[in-house]
Sequence to fold (525 residues):
Amino acid sequence: MIKFINVSKKYDKGIIALSNINFEIESGEFVFIVGPSGAGKSTLIKLLLKEEEPTSGTIIVNKKDITKMKRKEIPYLRRSMGVVFQDFRLLPNKTVFENVAFAMEVVGAHPKEIRRKVPMVLSLVGLSDKADQYPQQLSGGEQQRVALARAIVNEPSILIADEPTGNLDPDTSWEIVKLMAEINKRGTTVVMATHAKDIVDAMKKRVIALEKGNIVRDEARGVYGYAL
Amino acid sequence: MDMLFRNFRYFIKEGFSNLARNRLMTVASVTSVMAALVILGMFLLIILNVNHMAYQVESQLELKAFLKDDLSGEQIQRIGEEIKGIDGVSSVVFESKEQALEKFKKQLGEKSYLLEGLEKDNPLPQSYIVKVKDANLIKDIADEIKGINGVDKVSYGQDVVEKLLGIIRIIRIVGLAIISILFVISIVIISNTIKLGVFARRREINIMKYIGATDWFIRWPFLIEGIVLGLLGALLSVGVLALMYGYTLDYVNSRLIVFNLLPLSDVIKDMALYFALLGSLIGAIGSGLSIKRFLNV
Ligand SMILES: Nc1ncnc2c1ncn2[C@@H]1O[C@H](COP(=O)(O)OP(=O)(O)O)[C@@H](O)[C@H]1O
Ligand SMILES: [Mg+2]
Fold:
């Protein structure tokens, strides 16, 4: 499903964010990317989203070499992946419903389909009663759930999250991660970059640990393994 | 098809909501574009009229090849054939000594008595009146005719024609240069307005990119915004130009006799069409330029 082959990323001024990374993620897996700040987690995710280009190496997503992908194809790559960020990235002038619907409008979904689908995902993330509220009227946890709803409404095969709990308190963080586990159970591959030790340790999922751009550990039922 | 239509409704809604959101900027840039296009239009009108004048000059242009007196009818005929054979000559008409005198008399009108008695010893020369297809060729043709045996002199008001053609050429070049500059200025004005809108919505654009929006999906609302700005500016400027040109016509046509300016109705219909196209083009280029940078996410 996702395969990194000898992937390196060097930024300007010679900063090496990733050096010779190799791993493979199967369909349906739940994978944590862990590591201290600056380890290269976000860079790895940016490469997946084709927001950055690797300096060398090959990245395969859904059997396609995305490093050889044309600019025109990038939107379609991104439609196969739902993304969630630490800062939620919701549109402030749109309601919860409209924020989720927007993701469907962008891909040209039929209005009937939008009216059917949006309430479904909102109920999945437990926000049915907040559909008409604006983001700033919601708590951080609720905003992140809206972002999750938006990420999955087009039924992507991969859900990608970069520190989705970074701005949330522990209880709320748990709710988000449980939701992601639920989404994973329904068949979506999940890749989550985080340094939330408690969550990683408790979930007992695959852990890929990065340090200074290198994979230092890749365990099937791993723990975080760092003293924060 | 259905999807395309649905998207288009979204694009237009978004485009106009951008305009409404930045109302002050919208008014400011429409006004600026209008001003630029009014000046551009003035030069366009000048060029159109100069072209019209040049056409009138060219169609009135003729040169006269005066013949020596002691030629036989056959020789005269041969000279006529030779002139007709020169490239760029459109017509050749013979004028006998008698015809020349008649013409002169007519020109003098009531003072024609001055010419009485000249019939017996007519001093006016016989000539060929030659019309040319292109005023720029007139000098070469005159030189060539001068070389024909039996031709005494050639005249065509050299100084006036050459000066006039020179002036016309300069007006065309300067006019086109100014029009190009104003075209670019209009693009910059619109581009800056759109840039503000794009900047205000850069978060939204960024999010759209992550959701998988195509570049065109993001671009269209801004293109429509730019096209509407350009179109509004263009149509308003056509209105202003029509008023200004109307006054100019009244003023000039009562004073100038040699040339007449193009009538308003001839000019304004074409102008409205071209300006609508020009305005849309300016708007499209302006917004296309300003959004380019923000699409690279
Ligand atoms: N756009 C960039 N330009 C230059 N250096 C960058 C850029 N983005 C990240 N880096 C550097 O690359 C390294 C990895 O960063 P990042 O992938 O953000 O790590 P993490 O997400 O694990 O904290 C860091 O040293 C960071 O400073
Ligand atoms: Mg990071």
